[in-house]
Amino acid sequence: MSDTRAESRTYTARWVFPASNPPLHRGTVTVSGSVIEAVDPHGVRQPDEDLGNVAIIPGLVNAHTHLDLSGARGLTPPTTADRFTDWLLSVITYRRSRSPEQTRADIHAGLAESLRCGTTLIGDIAAEGQTWDVLAAAPTRAVVFRELIGLSPERSQTAHDTAETWLAGHHPTTSTRPGLSPHAPYSVRKGLFADAGRLCRSGKISYAVHLAESAAEVELLTHRRGPFADFLKDLGLWLPDGLTEDFGAVIEACDFGQPKLFVHGNHLAPTTRMTPGSTIVYCPRTHAAFGHPPHPFREFLARGVRVCLGTDSLASNPDLDVLAEARFIHSRYPDFPGDTLLKMVTLFGAEAMDWSNKTGSLEPGKSADLVAVPLPERDAEDAHTLLFAQDAPRADRRSMFCGLWRSWMTVGGNACFANEM
Questions:
Q1: From first to last of its 421 residues, what are the pLDDT tens digits of the chain?
Q2: What are the backbone dihedrals phi and psi of residue 211, each rounded to the nearest 5 degrees, phi first?
Q3: CA-to-CA dists, residue 238 to 82, 149, 187, 189, 377, angstroms
Q4: What residue numbers bound the domain in which 378 lies?
Q5: Distance (Å, rounded) from C-alpha 407 to C-alpha 417?
Q6: In CATH, what number is assigned to the domain containing residue 252?
Q7: What are the Amidohydrolase-related domain coordinates in residue numbering (predicted)?
């Protein structure tokens, strides 16, 4: 994004959270054009604007969602964990019921909600890559993962060929990058994981897979039986010879060095070997809604495996606010380090999708992507507890992308955002 603006403006607030460094009480962030010029402790620079009782944090990163399902809020409620395939069928039925016009409106609505929450980088998994045009035109960064599905040899080959064609027609821009997402071990023929990985390696693009989302998935791969076997038989897709052997085989199949996002990981053993460049994307409220056992995110982080957060879609989650995911974790695990939790919704997600040279933390030279988050009217020994507090004000968050404050508007009946000039 070219920007000829050279005027600098310095902002202060009650707290500044760079994410890459400790919080600064009454610190300042200086923005020059579209980039951050400086992040300083209190007293180094005279602020031009005091944002008040807010935390200035990096733009939020939602590493996993499905914007095309944004119209499903309340229509496909999560089931108990042992009936996960019933929920999955309701999502398939919902998706098939939507016209192209309705789906496009859903994408716009989901995008607007994401931006209102302060998201400045989105990892979106999209059937046929259909969110590309909307996200490429929006004031945000994004990786659009084209979803690949195919258990039979014929459908697997078709998925590979259409992915290759789609990548040839969708080149990275300054704000939007293509990616591929072989959907899951129960919906993708085992050879397609490696084939898609090779396409990602040749294009130096990101790769995402839903992995170990439910206990039924474990039973399917280990014993070739259970709810997923029945689900596939009912759909006429029971092809056990095409299934991978286990989750480790999926992880190893795409060990090509490119960024890899393994989404959910609810039932991954904490000792699972993760290949270089791997990230686990944990969706806390969706995980809890299905009643899964405690997620192993802390064990993976302790091993040095990167973990970031996503909201999943509105087919399973109440909203698309990734900061609310972090606050949910804080309420469940109040002793979990606040600095790590902040990175899980900012820097770690940017690293996972190969955007950390531009965004994910407040550092000189990076894009001026930031959010002003209202704080409670009280003190705390650790400032992070204010940021993640359940009693934080629900007031609107002001967010900046590439040095410009974003404003909400409606265009053609669709809610959207634009940068203020």
A1: 444 456 899 999 999 999 999 999 999 999 999 999 999 999 999 999 999 999 999 999 999 999 999 999 999 999 999 999 999 999 999 999 999 999 999 999 999 999 999 999 999 999 999 999 999 999 999 999 999 999 999 999 999 999 999 999 999 999 999 999 999 999 999 999 999 999 999 888 999 999 999 999 999 999 999 999 999 999 999 999 999 989 999 999 888 878 999 999 999 999 999 999 999 999 999 999 999 999 999 999 999 999 999 999 999 999 999 999 999 999 999 999 999 999 999 999 999 999 999 999 999 999 999 999 999 999 999 999 999 998 888 778 999 999 999 986 444 445 455 565 3
A2: -140, 135
A3: 20, 14, 10, 11, 57
A4: 8-58+361-419
A5: 6
A6: 3.20.20.140
A7: 56-375
**391 burial type by CB count under 10 A (0-12 exposed, 13-18 middle, 19+ buried):** exposed
Q: Per the domain annotation, does 377 fall within a domain?
A: yes
Is the distance from CB of 111 to CB of 67 less than 8 angstroms? yes
Residue 3 placed within a domain = no
Q: How far apart, in whole angstroms, are the C-alpha atoms of residue 406 and residue 415?
A: 13
The residue whose two tokens read 């591929």 is: 180
Strand 60-65 to 119-127 pairing: parallel
Residue 92's identity, in one-letter code, is I
- d(C-alpha 261, C-alpha 314), whole Å: 20
Contact 37, 28 (CB under 8 A): no
Q: What's the token pair of residue 98?
A: 């939507």
CA dihedral 107, 109, 115, 120 (to 10 degrees): 0
Domain tally, the chain: 2
Both tokens of 11, joined, read 């902002």
pTM above 0.70, yes or no: yes
CA pseudo-torsion sign 73, 80, 239, 189? positive
Last residue of a domain, one of 315, 333, 352: 352
